[in-house]
Amino acid sequence: MLKSYLLSPGPTPVPERVLLAMAQPIIHHRTPQFSAVFADTAERLKKVFNTKQDVLILSSSGTGAMEASVTNSFSVGEKVLVVNGGKFGERWGKIAEAYGLKVEWMNVEWGNAVDPAAIKAALDKDSAIKGVLMQATESSTTVKYPIKEIAQITKNSDVLLVVDGITGVGVFDIPMDEWGIDILISGSQKAFMLPPGLAFIALSEKAWKKVDGAKNNKFYFDLKKERKNLADKTTAYTPAVSLINGLREVLNMLDEIGLDNWYKRTALLAKAAQAGTAALGLKMVTDSPSEAMTGVFLPEGVDGNKLVKVLRDKVGITFAGGQDQWKGKIIRIAQLGYIGEFDIVIALSSIEMALARFGAKVEMGSGVAAVQEVLMNSFEV
Amino acid sequence: MLKSYLLSPGPTPVPERVLLAMAQPIIHHRTPQFSAVFADTAERLKKVFNTKQDVLILSSSGTGAMEASVTNSFSVGEKVLVVNGGKFGERWGKIAEAYGLKVEWMNVEWGNAVDPAAIKAALDKDSAIKGVLMQATESSTTVKYPIKEIAQITKNSDVLLVVDGITGVGVFDIPMDEWGIDILISGSQKAFMLPPGLAFIALSEKAWKKVDGAKNNKFYFDLKKERKNLADKTTAYTPAVSLINGLREVLNMLDEIGLDNWYKRTALLAKAAQAGTAALGLKMVTDSPSEAMTGVFLPEGVDGNKLVKVLRDKVGITFAGGQDQWKGKIIRIAQLGYIGEFDIVIALSSIEMALARFGAKVEMGSGVAAVQEVLMNSFEV
Question: CA angle B301-B307-B308, nearest 5°?
Fold first, then answer.
């Protein structure tokens, strides 16, 4: 009977009305009835991607859309620059290598954002580089990368800027067309507050032109085929019908709140979580935090793996801990998707109690109070 | 307020208790809580696949598992024999070609089963062929292929028998290990009575050995990586959590009914649908029908596209019509998955009424009566 709370930066909690939308009876995917739902959903996704381009819906995890970006846009032997400042940046490079691309690694220290000047220097130095592969938010380090500034560099060149916005689209505004991003992808289980199983991808005109000439292996993730099918209001292969029903309900919710308010809400929760953890004396893992989540180092001597485990199994709160080099050392509090104000209260409250039980020095309630200070002025009286 | 019935051979109706299982709150996928669900589900899938081998769960449509079979088991330049007797056989060949394999096409007339002797002759003639790619049921033609007999031919050779059992596993028994099938795949939206979005794949020892030496491009669909992760009770990439919750509930249902009874039930419905359509004088499209569905030619002069459309939009019954060369000419009644006895009554009843309205000669109630004759002896009194 432990009442459970999912406060991890993906998957995120699914709103009750979305769960119910997904529990509707299945309709056949090759019917005008489903086509109407599908076309409407894909059309409305454009608003969240802030683009006039088609947003394609794939039945896969976000990694599938990462693979699609690589195999549809780059030929075997082409060179790409991969921003590697965490686990997901590293994944870009592994995918590129798996499909025969040459990878120029731009290694960034965990917790740091990539410097646009370094990107510019790398591109100036080597004109063979035809793509920059990076994240909007590197989830493993909670860092937000300066996409807008980097797009300024690639915009008027033959280099494609490919952005994994799995933790980004729907978290903060990423005006793809205005900034000049060439490929932007996302997934269902983050700000889109759905279960995992759908990936989204949009390409600029420049990217679509490159797709025409790209020679690489692909079949299931064939973007030209999907674009042609989308024009016919369908998909190349059987789509994940129930998740798409859920997605439509999510888009209804985002219409109701308004995207600007949605982004403000996430940013407010970020501010609250940052204030709460600061009040506890916990050091943030980065100076460039994403609004998606707050990552902080745990006090010396506290076993982070054990703390996250106890919070989950004994207290009912699921946070994300650290990955790879930060395993056991950090805790990450989610702010994206269907996380509300009092989830941040719960987050800080549970962390305070756990830290105290793990022998750290904590003034009980101080983190919660700091959260309250931020939140109390967020509503009209 | 049209009360709707989904009688297509995929997607199939999802039982209410499965819809509710999928509407459970999402839990994080990197937790012992989800690992327990995942490992239990994967373990119990073995029973349905009738194998001792691991059954891997992929987040994709069935086509993703077809691609995985090709890219994990065959090297660029290797030759495979593709049984092409319909739309899905053709897909095998397209995938193989997309990944640089040489395809030897064995074209089979639509509506016919492939002759095992022809497979044997093709393999004897060309020792360069290292795989036979085929379906258990070719859904586009409703034909059941003689997998057991073909496995006898490949079993003690270096040729892999790769079977798309998307419409097969869970429809009838396919004892993978006993027969000597090397790769068997399936998908969630057929006999597994789930929404689309999951694919399943199992490999024989012989196939796993070949995987070790196969050189081809892959990343998202990397079976060795997934097998390693399954041993750790997890997946390489974020799994479709809600669909896996649903799958576990499906496996509960199959445990309750028992697989033998489940197959008998599907076969009984097939017999009923065959009797009903025969009573209406509708000719079956094949002499080798799968238990999954019954396909019949519509009377001359009846526009099948329009008939299927009217049944769906005005009567509420969704059947599958014909594809490609059979478009507008046939209708397919589903018997697999969560289809019950009275769905077959509804099927024949609605087809009778539609045929009469389309000007065909029909004795109203005669098809239904034939269905009843079959069904009435299926229960104890």
Answer: 135
- Which of A14, A219, A242 is facing B94, going by the closest CB pair? A219
Residue A193 and residue A337 in contact, taking contact as beta carbons nearer than 8 Å: yes
pLDDT at B243 over 90: yes
Q: Is the pLDDT of residue A1 over 90?
A: no
Query: Distance (Å, rounded) from C-alpha B183 to C-alpha B167?
Result: 15
- Using a 10 angstrom Cβ sphere, with 0-12 exposed, 13-18 middle and 19 or more buried, the burial of residue B248 is middle
Q: Decide the pairing of beta strands B129-135 and B160-164.
A: parallel
- Reported as a pLDDT band with limits 50, 70 and 90, residue B325 is very high
Considering only the top CATH level, what class is B16-256?
alpha beta
Q: Tell me how many degrees the CA angle B274-B113-B64 measures, rounded to the nearest 5.
A: 95
Q: DSSP secondary structure string, A39-99? A: HHHHHHHHHHHT-SS-EEEEES-HHHHHHHHHHHH--TT-EEEEEESSHHHHHHHHHHHHT
The set of residues, in sequence order, having a beta carbon less than 8 Å from that of A1 and lying 6+ positions away, is none
CB–CB of A28 and B8 under 8 A?
yes
Mean pLDDT of B129-146: 98
User: Are residues B64 and A220, on separate chains, in Cβ contact within 8 Å?
Assistant: yes
Q: Give A258-375's CATH code, choosing from 3.90.1150.10, 3.30.2350.20, 3.40.47.40, 3.10.20.320.
A: 3.90.1150.10
Smallest CA–CA distance, residue B192 to chain A, in Å, is 13
Question: In Å, how far are A85, A89, A101, A321 from A124, measured between CA atoms?
Answer: 21, 21, 19, 38
Assign 3-class secondary structure to A191-257: CCCCCCCEEEEEECHHHHHHHHHCCCCCCCCCHHHHHHHHHCCCCCCCCCHHHHHHHHHHHHHHHHH
> In chain B, which residues fall in CATH 3.90.1150.10?
258-375
CA distance B330 to chain A (A): 16
Does position B302 have pLDDT exceeding 90, yes or no? yes
3-class secondary structure, B279: helix
Among A33, A59, A217, the residue with its CB nearest the CB of B61 is: A59
| HSE of B18, CA atoms in CB hemisphere, 13 A | 26
Query: The tokens of B59 are what?
Result: 């987040």
CA distances from A143 to A85, A324, A375, B26 (A): 9, 16, 23, 25
Structure tokens at A274: 């940052």
Q: What is the pLDDT of residue B63?
A: 98
Answer yes or no: do A63 and B219 touch at CB < 8 A: yes
State ipTM.
Answer: 0.92
Cβ-count burial of A272 within 10 angstroms (0-12 exposed, 13-18 middle, 19+ buried)? buried
Question: What pLDDT digit, counting tens, does each position of A207-237 carry?
Answer: 999 999 999 999 999 999 999 999 999 999 9
Classified as helix, coil or strand, B270 is helix
User: What are the pLDDT digits (tens) for A155-177?
Assistant: 999 999 999 999 999 999 999 99
Please write the tens of the pLDDT for every residue from A239-266. 999 999 999 999 999 999 999 999 999 9
Question: A62 with A199: CB under 8 angstroms?
Answer: yes
Residue A286: strand, helix, or coil: coil
Query: At a CB cut-off of 8 Å and minimum separation 6, what does A351 contact?
Result: A277, A280, A311, A331, A333, A367
Which residue of A lies nearest to B321 if distances are taken between CA atoms?
Answer: A30
For residue A76, pLDDT over 90 is answered with yes
Cite the residue boundaries of each domain of chain B with CATH code 3.40.640.10. Answer: 16-256
Number of H helices, E strands in chain A: 14, 13
Per-residue model confidence as pLDDT tens digits over B11-49? 999 999 999 999 999 999 999 999 999 999 999 999 999
